[in-house]
Structures are given as C-alpha cells and as structure tokens.
Design a protein that fits this description.
The structure is a single chain. The chain is an alpha/beta fold. It has two domains: about 325 residues, TIM Barrel; about 80 residues, no CATH class. It has 23 helices and eleven strands. The strands form three sheets. Strands 1-5-6-7 form a four-stranded parallel β-sheet. Helix 16 links the parallel strand 8 and strand 9. The chain is globular and about 70 Å long. The chain starts with a helix and ends in a 5-residue tail after the last helix.
C-alpha cells in the first residue's frame, strides 16, 4: 500500500483512547438498548457519515411522487398502480386509468394515494398479496414515470432528509447510460452464451476486447456517454447539491437482467462515464440477482467486469452480490457469487452479501475481504423485507468478527418506508454485542470506504471528528 494512503488512513482513524464524553456516550447507549424511542432520539442526533448504497427512485418517498404527479398532471392506472405521463390508450384495455387532476377535483385523490402507497412501498404490506421480493422489485416500474418526470425535486428532497438526520454524503444511483442499438451487436448474444457454456474465459476476453473497440469507434455510442456525463454534471451544478455540510456523488450502473450484449454495452458506457467525470465515482450492477437471466449469466457478467476492470483500473466498482438466501434459489447457487464478485470482477465493495455463510470457501473469503478491506454495505430493513433475513440469521456479526469493514446503508428508503437513522436503531437493538465504538467505526467506514476523492475523504473525516465531539459532549449530559 502506498505510504500516502497509509498516512491518510492513520490521520483519519478515530482516536482509540476514549475521552470522558465518549465514555459517557457509550454508557448512555448501553442504558437504552431496549428502549427504542430513546434509541431513535440518540441516533437522530448522532452524525452518520454517508449512505453508500442508495437507489434514487427507491429512496424517494411516495409522497414526493404524488406531488410530482399533481404538478405534472400525470395519469394513474388504479388496477396496476402504474403512473404515466399521458392517457395510455394502447390495447383497448378497460382497466381504470385516471387523471390525477380529475381525482383531485372529484375528491378521490386521497383514497387513490393510499392505494398507490400500498402498491409503491411496503406500507400496510400483507404477505397474502404475494412474495415480498416481488412487491419490492415491482414497485420501481409502477412509480418510474413520476421518478423520471422530476429528478431534481427528488434529489433535493433526498438532500434535505440527509441533512436533517445528520448524513453528510450520499453515493446516488440516479440512472444508467442509455446506449443506442447498433448493427454490429447482431449475433453477439449467441457467441457470449456459447463461450459461457464452455467456460472459455480466454476466448471470451478476446471477443470482449473486439467488441470494446467496436463500441468505442462508434460516435453514436460515445456521444450517448458524453450526453450522460453532461447531464449528471449540469444537474449537480444546477441543484447546488454540494455545500459545506453535504456532498453527493453518483454511481452509474448496468442491469443484470438484460441480454448479454446490452449488459456489456451499458457496463462499458458506465466505466467510460466514470472515467470522464469526477462526479461519477463508481460503477454498480442492479436488478434482482435471483431472476432467471441474472442467475443464468452470472459467470458471464463477472467475466465482463474482469475485462472492464483491466481496461479501467482506476474506476471503483461495487457490486450487489449474495443478495440471496436459501429457498429463494437452489442451495448450490448460494455458494459462489460473492467470491466471484471479489476475485473475478474485482469489486472493492459488496452490496448485501447475505449468503456468505453458504460460500464454499467462506472462511478464506472472509479473511481475504478483511485483509484487502473489501467493505460490505449492510442494508438491514431491505434484507428483512426482501429476503426475510434479520437478527442472528443476518451475517453482519460474522463479517464483523472476521474483521471485514462494514458500512450501514438504506438501499431504498422510500419503498421500505425507513431512513438511515432507523438502520442504526435496528443495529443497536438487535446486535447488543456491538459497542458504541463499533457503531462509531461503521460511521467512519462510510467515509473511508466511499469512492469520493482522497481530499474529499480527508475533509469528510475532519467534519465527522468535529460533529462527533459536539455530539458526545451533548449526550454526556443526558440521563435515562
């Protein structure tokens, strides 16, 4: 490790010796472990660093989408919960579609809002409706038109909420690059699938390199990337998303449930965009990991990342991996996804990582992740609702005892009707073995293992130092 990085880590590490106010704060936390209202108050005040696993549309609360639907006069299908920008007349469907303005005028909007809230989130969810994972993932397509109609409003609301709960940084998954369809893509899928079937990694690398140059020589393709970068940078500037107390950076991403050539096209565009802009700090991979295409093509996808990381060595990568549990997929399918994400794709952070105990080499992998500081993004409410994993079933303690760096995140706070403060409440309530020092370390980890610049990390740690000092001085005077 370069000396400059070692020095940075040294100067940005929390002081190990407890101050009197820090000790008093730790003692106060222990006194309220079983008092959830007091925990909420404690963590509401506590500085929480950054949220590194943050999907834009899933993080915006439904109430904001309702406001957008009202201001933009959108339409809603009350049978499906879908919102659209115009009356959807295709197919002669008799499903009830209503103008939001008409619903307001006739006094029916409040009732419609309640129904849409049930469609767009976990609020009032009843398992008799169907699987919770389907409720979650289907929500994105239902409110998508509202999310896309006014991203500025959504981003400003997310910033406001972050500052209100003492969050100083977000890595936002706002949108991916929209790549054009190109003539040379025809026939590529069959080649990719054949090489995946034969596990021909070296031949696949040659095909990927040829395809890489085909894309990069196409001005229609590169123009799409440039347009995306310009959009992100202009939006960030226009909204003044950064200030002295808060910063937002962006991850771009591909979708793991598309055909192979589209996956590669969008991943390549993502890496190229991140290389071109300081505001786009990393690449991710979204969409359900347990779906048919993502399970079938997982080996192929990891090889794509392996190739792209070799071409873009300085572009950080975080991957949703191991967002699986027994019953959701076959037991043997739980045994290698995190390993491949770390050792083939080259991910520097792992999102979720729930099936680590099922990995065929879990002890060695945990030791490697600890040694190489591959951080895991912990999403407690998300894992509970989507996978039914919580408490002792969650591998959080396993990671922590192995020395793997952990960061606490929300995932999709809008759909899940939660916030980052509540994630810390759950953490302290359900994992009493974690001390105040442990929890504080997780907060510092959210800056240290972020993908922002080294200067940004240094400033972020200094800000945290000052905020924690003030927080602990205040809490030292609290009594339970």
């Amino acid at each position: 490790m370069p000396r400059s990085i070692l020095f940075l880590l040294f100067i940005t590490s929390p002081i190990l010796a407890q101050t009197p106010s820090e000790e008093a704060t730790a003692n106060y936390l222990e006194s309220i472990r079983d008092q959830e209202a007091y925990l909420r108050q404690f963590f509401q005040y506590m500085p929480k660093g950054g949220d590194l696993h943050h999907h834009f549309s899933g993080s915006v609360y439904a109430e904001t989408f309702f406001e957008i639907a009202e201001q933009d006069s959108l339409w809603v299908n009350m049978e499906t919960g879908m919102v659209s920008g115009a009356y959807p007349s295709r197919g002669g469907s008799t499903q009830p579609r209503y103008s939001v303005q008409d619903l307001i005028a006739t006094g029916k909007w409040q009732k419609a809002r309640v129904q849409l809230l049930m469609d767009w989130s976990n609020q009032y969810f009843d398992p008799s409706w169907g699987p919770s994972d389907e409720q979650f993932f289907n929500a994105f397509g239902k409110f998508g038109a509202a999310a896309d109609a006014d991203r500025a409003k959504g981003l400003l609301k997310l910033k406001e909420r972050a500052k209100n709960e003492n969050v100083q940084y977000i890595e936002e998954m706002l949108t991916g690059v929209r790549t054009p369809s190109l003539g040379f893509e025809k026939g590529k899928n069959e080649v990719f699938w054949r090489l995946q079937g034969d596990k021909q990694a070296s031949e696949l690398e040659r095909v990927l390199e040829d395809t890489y140059w085909e894309y990069m020589r196409d001005t229609t393709y590169t123009n799409a990337i440039n347009k995306y970068v310009s959009y992100i940078e202009s939006l960030h500037k226009a909204l003044v998303l950064d200030d002295q107390e808060f910063k937002m950076r962006f991850q771009t991403y591909g979708s793991r449930n598309s055909e192979p050539i589209k996956v590669f096209a969008r991943l390549l565009a993502s890496f190229q965009a991140a290389q071109q802009s300081d505001l786009i700090v990393g690449v991710n991979f979204v969409s359900p990991e347990h779906y048919l295409v993502s399970m079938r093509d997982y080996w192929l996808h990891m090889q794509m990342f392996n190739f792209l990381k070799s071409m873009y060595k300085d572009v950080p990568l975080t991957l949703h991996a191991g967002e699986l549990t027994v019953g959701l997929v076959r037991p043997e399918d739980l045994s290698w996804h995190i390993d491949a994400a770390v050792n083939v794709a080259g991910a520097q952070r792992i999102g979720h990582g729930i099936d680590i105990a099922y990995e065929r080499n879990s002890n060695a992998l945990l030791a490697q992740m600890a040694n190489e500081e591959v951080a895991v993004e912990i999403n407690l409410t998300s894992n509970d609702f989507i996978l039914g994993v919580s408490g002792s079933e969650h591998p959080l303690t396993m990671y922590h005892r192995a020395g793997v760096p952990l960061v606490i995140c929300t995932d999709d706070a809008g759909i899940l009707r939660t916030d980052l403060t509540q994630q810390f409440v759950i953490l302290a309530r359900d994992y009493p073995e974690l001390s105040y020092a442990d929890i504080k370390q997780f907060v510092y980890n959210s800056i240290r293992y972020s993908f922002m610049s080294q200067r940004g990390k240094k400033e972020g740690i200094e800000w945290l130092d000052a905020r924690f000092k003030a927080f602990e001085l205040e809490v030292a005077g609290w009594k339970y």
